[in-house]
């Protein structure tokens, strides 16, 4: 245990609904952020949004809040892929889901990253709706350059096109001009799949919740299960982040998609946040020395992250949640409920 005198407060701040709303600062959040900065208190901002480089988001935040935020202080939904995926798959073909996100992936050092639309253009028969009359490249054999991973950076631009291409890539273990080897239950899934946002829905301007990545994951899982069940595939293989659920489903007919998820409230995102907080401390500081607070408006994301990691959490009333704390279950139960991020700093006597 660290001695109390070594305990250093550090903050993981949610953006939307905590610091700002649709890019406009929430009253008090600008001065609260400036207070943390002037007290040299370690902080990162952490969002399940993505689709851009951390440096781009950092520049926008610095401009909005008049506080210097560096790219090392920004965790986007896909930031953990920099350590979990990029070092292994730098030179490999990877398929990127999300509008304009292939460019972001290439910026991460994934030299052969290709967006769904780019891949489709190179393989024009896969999604006939996109095929141009003068496309001559009818069958492209990628056996020497198979897709090694599908990375969801953001919601798909066109769900139909994305599902078709992902099914082709997954069932053929990376080369859609080859046989659908996964229809044989004995063959292992070789293409890694990473999602970067576990949420099924989010709250937008519409009357009812809007679908996001978690929902699209359900679609892909259902299609893989149904395609392999129809082929009489009765066994499953477990490799990437298997869970008890995976093992239980072994008796089901059809395959269970092997996939991993990062983003709040997963521990991989928590781990990324800790390493970025420690980068802002002196070299002798360890995780045990930090009293880490997550601050955010979503009990199932911001608070659950803290509970998954054993940290403290403050649930603010400036965003999507303004309910009764006693109705929240264990993993979503915060350490404190506060009116705003600014109010939290006052309660903690940080001035
Ligand atoms: Mg939020």
UniProtKB/TrEMBL annotation:
This is Uncharacterized protein. PANTHER family: CAT EYE SYNDROME CRITICAL REGION PROTEIN 5 (PTHR14269:SF4), CDP-DIACYLGLYCEROL--GLYCEROL-3-PHOSPHATE 3-PHOSPHATIDYLTRANSFERASE-RELATED (PTHR14269). It comes from Cyclotella cryptica. Pfam families: Hydrolase_6, Hydrolase_like. SUPFAM superfamilies: HAD-like.
């Amino acid at each position: 245990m660290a001695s109390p005198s070594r305990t250093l407060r550090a903050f993981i701040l949610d953006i939307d609904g905590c610091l700002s709303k649709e890019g406009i600062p929430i009253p008090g959040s600008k001065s609260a952020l400036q207070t943390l900065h002037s007290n040299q208190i370690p902080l990162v901002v952490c969002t399940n949004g993505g689709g851009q480089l951390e440096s781009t988001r950092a520049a926008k935040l610095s401009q909005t809040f008049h506080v210097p935020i560096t790219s090392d202080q920004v965790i986007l939904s896909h930031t953990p892929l920099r350590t979990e995926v990029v070092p292994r798959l730098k030179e490999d073909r990877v398929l990127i889901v999300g509008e304009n996100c292939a460019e972001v992936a290439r910026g991460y050092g994934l030299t052969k990253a290709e967006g769904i639309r780019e891949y489709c253009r190179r393989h024009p028969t896969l999604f006939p709706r996109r095929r141009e009359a003068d496309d001559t490249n009818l069958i492209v054999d990628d056996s020497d350059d198979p897709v090694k991973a599908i990375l969801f950076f953001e919601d798909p631009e066109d769900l139909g096109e994305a599902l078709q291409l992902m099914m082709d890539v997954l069932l053929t273990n990376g080369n859609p001009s080859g046989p659908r080897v996964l229809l044989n239950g004995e063959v292992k899934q070789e293409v890694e799949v990473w999602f970067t946002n576990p949420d099924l829905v989010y709250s937008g301007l519409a009357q009812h919740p809007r679908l996001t990545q978690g929902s699209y994951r359900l679609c892909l899982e259902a299609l893989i299960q149904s395609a392999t069940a129809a082929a009489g595939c009765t066994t499953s293989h477990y490799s990437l982040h298997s869970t008890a659920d995976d093992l239980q489903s072994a008796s089901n007919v059809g395959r269970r998609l092997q996939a991993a998820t990062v983003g709040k409230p997963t521990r991989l995102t928590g781990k990324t946040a800790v390493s970025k907080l420690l980068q802002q401390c002196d070299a002798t500081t360890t995780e045990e020395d930090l009293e880490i607070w997550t601050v955010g408006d979503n009990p199932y994301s911001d608070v659950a992250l803290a509970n998954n990691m054993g940290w403290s959490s403050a649930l603010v009333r400036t965003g999507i949640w303004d309910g009764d704390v006693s109705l929240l279950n264990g993993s979503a139960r915060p350490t404190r409920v506060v009116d705003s991020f600014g109010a939290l700093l006052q309660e903690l006597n940080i001035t």
